[in-house]
Amino acid sequence: IGSAALAALALFAAYTKAVGLNVIDLTNSKVVAGMLLGGTVPFLLGALTMGAVGRTAQKMVAEVRRQFKEIPGLLEGSGDAKPDYSSCVAISTDAALKEMIIPGVIAIISPLIIGFILGREALGGFLAGAVVTGVMLALMMANSGGAWDNAKKYIEEGNLGGKGSDPHKAAVVGDTVGDPFKDTSGPAMNILIKLMSIVSLVIAPLLI
Known about the structure:
Elements: H1 2-19, H2 29-70, H3 85-98, H4 101-118, H5 120-156, H6 166-207
């Protein structure tokens, strides 16, 4: 997360040099609008990625239940029963590609729209807002997701009642949110802020 923040700041500095922005004026309404829009993008991306994980998990659960019903002896653990691994892999791979189309388009298109419609100053504010909220959101997701995950492991070791207790049931629910927090949405923020900064730097000569 720290390396992504430093990379984004370096790209932001390169963008300001490329478009000739020595100062970002916070009294400029376009800059403020750009900052507000930039600050919302990481939250939108986080919502999209969390939703993608939930939808894919539901598909996987449905597939596992189907195999339990249709493959004799699978639920009982019979040695002759073989699960259909390829179907589960196909669900994961298909979702990994399809569910990232919209977030990817947002990360690439949003700097283009802001830059060409509102101008270079607004795009500077947009990047600043996205970097600030993106880094903070990534830190929060990584730390809170890790805390929820480790809380479940701590209880499963026999603490606070161990497996099957009410704290364990609550920790399982927390881990359901924590895993996509730390493994999906959190790392996605790093990619988002770097990608938007790179796109802005590429189109910078067209905004002068």
